[in-house]
Write a structure and sequence with these properties.
This is IS21 family transposase. By secondary structure, the chain is α+β, with helices and mostly antiparallel strands. It is about 45% helix and about 15% strand. Helix 17 packs across helix 19.
Length: about 525
């Protein structure tokens, strides 16, 4: 307390009839403090001259004993307390109890203990102002706050993650909505950001999410798909330290600006697609980047164009996301599972390890740094895509064991062979039950030739026995020759003097001897 306040309060107490509250208001002291001064003056029968004759220390000792006693309090070991608070489960209240138990008479009360600790900790949390070169760095993060859009066909609500980035010294803001934090969406958001800025910062600083960093620490291990994207654009990935938000202060600040100027502005709008949501976000981001900042009297975009853009790396063609899967050991059925769908590889690679490079449209199978298979990507979970060239001969033969294949084969021989195969398939309870018979027919045709086989099928149809056994018996006994003779005997020309079989079948007609 200042000395002039104390002396002024004593003078007013002793020389006026003003109340304690009125004196307190006049000298800016608490009512209880004035009341205590009055009690001490009466207790010691002091006059104004007695008070003025005392030196400052004596006055403080007389009128402010609590303040004098506080000067004798034990100062806690703040560095020790700060270290102990980093341990799990340790609280300030626990540490205060331990401090008080050492000597209750000289210890601070809990509220004063907390106030003094906060004041001490505030002197330790120093920040170093960083100076970055123009266009050198860009900061990226997810906002942590989801936005949504509604499917107009079903009414289903979909959530979207918000990617936020700040570029260069100017801190040009960018934001976009993506379906999730998966690595393909994380990479896609970076591509949109680089093309929005029209260039690439030399250093990109992300957080330690799994899509960016597979193993955090002093030597972080980057996600291979994320690293491939960085190599394409020529930027260096330097993840921020874990639980060190100051390492990406511009990204944190960008997220705060986004929450206030985008999410709050769009809170009452309903979007019906992800593209529509991104259109709304882009409109708000343009307003932020074009708004004049009082500190610089320029907008973010103006400062970016003047300072950062000339220093950015040139923008290459747009990166096509690719994700590496593997190593994967090839099972005995020579089909490997990539994102839930099974793709064939050459059967000779069974029990070997392969890798897969996955883009949004293509799956490439890599073995010993060589591509051994390539497929259009399928999203059918549990489905199978097979290249016949990857199958061994006996598997290929079994794969061809289908009704369609046998019908096509028979059609290539002739209509009689086709009729026999159709009869076998239609006569079975299920077409699969006649496949072995069709296979035996094919073997018989290879043994005796297609021409004889076609004639034998015609003979079997004529005797109404279109079976494998009948066709085989006809061929073994050469009975198909009758069909050949019928096929090659020319028909007699029509003539009035030629009697047909009907003539001789009629008993009423007199026949010449």
């Amino acid at each position: 307390m200042k000395q002039d306040k104390l002396v002024t309060a004593v003078r007013l107490i002793l020389t006026t009839s003003a109340s304690n509250r009125q004196i307190g208001r006049d000298v800016d002291l608490a009512y209880n403090t004035i009341r205590r001064y009055r009690m001490l003056l009466e207790q010691h029968a002091l006059t104004l001259d007695d008070v003025e004759a005392l030196n400052e220390s004596a006055r403080q000792a007389l009128f402010n004993r609590r303040g004098a006693a506080q000067g004798e309090r034990r100062v806690p070991d703040w560095p020790h307390i700060h270290r102990e608070l980093q341990r799990k489960g340790v609280t300030r209240t626990l540490l205060w109890l331990e401090y008080r138990d050492e000597d209750p008479d000289t210890s601070y009360e809990l509220s004063r203990f907390n106030d003094l600790y906060r004041a001490w900790a505030g002197t330790q949390a120093l920040s170093m102002r960083q100076q970055y070169d123009p266009g050198e760095r860009g900061w990226v993060d997810f906002s942590g706050t989801l936005m949504s859009w509604v499917d107009p066909a079903t009414g289903e609500q979909h959530r979207a993650e918000i990617f936020v980035a700040a570029t260069g010294v100017a801190g040009l803001l960018f934001a976009t909505a993506v379906p999730s934090q998966r690595v393909e969406h994380w990479v896609e958001a970076h591509c949109r950001w680089y093309h929005f800025a029209g260039g690439v910062p030399r250093i990109t600083i992300p957080d330690n999410l799994k899509s960016a960093v597979t193993k955090a620490g002093s030597e972080p291990v980057l996600n291979p798909s994320y690293l491939a994207m960085a190599h394409h654009y020529g930027t260096v990935i330097l993840p921020a330290r874990s639980r060190r938000p100051k390492d990406k202060a511009l990204a944190e600040g960008g997220v705060l600006v986004f929450l206030r100027w985008v999410i709050a502005r769009l809170r009452n709008r309903v979007f019906h697609s992800l593209d529509e949501l991104n259109t709304g976000i882009a409109e708000c981001i343009d307003l932020i980047n074009d708004r004049t900042m009082r500190r610089y009297r320029q907008s973010r975009r103006e400062r970016f164009e003047q300072i950062d853009r000339p220093a950015l790396l040139p923008l290459p063609e747009r990166y096509e996301f690719s994700e590496w899967v593997g190593p994967v050991r090839v099972p005995p059925d020579y089909h490997v599972s990539i994102h839930g769908h099974y793709y064939s590889v050459p059967y000779r690679l069974v029990q070997q390890q392969i890798h897969a490079r996955c883009t949004p449209n293509v799956i490439e199978i890599i073995s010993h740094n060589a591509r051994v298979a390539s497929y259009a990507r399928s999203e059918v979970i549990g489905g199978k895509t097979t290249d016949r060239a990857h199958m061994p001969d006996h598997h290929l033969a079994w794969a061809d064991h289908t009704p369609e294949r046998y019908l096509g084969w028979a059609q290539g021989i002739g209509h009689r062979a086709l009729a026999v195969v159709q009869s076998l398939l239609e006569g079975a309870r299920h077409p699969a039950a006649a496949l072995n018979s069709c296979g035996n027919l094919q073997k018989t045709a290879r043994t005796h030739g297609a021409e004889r086989f076609e004639l034998a099928c015609g003979r079997a149809l004529a005797i109404k026995s279109p079976t494998v056994k009948s066709v085989r018996s006809i061929l073994q006994n050469g009975l198909e020759r009758h069909e050949r003779a019928l096929a090659i005997t020319p028909a007699l020309p029509s003539h009035g003097n030629v009697r047909g079989p009907n003539y001789y079948a009629n008993p009423e007609v007199a026949h010449a001897d």
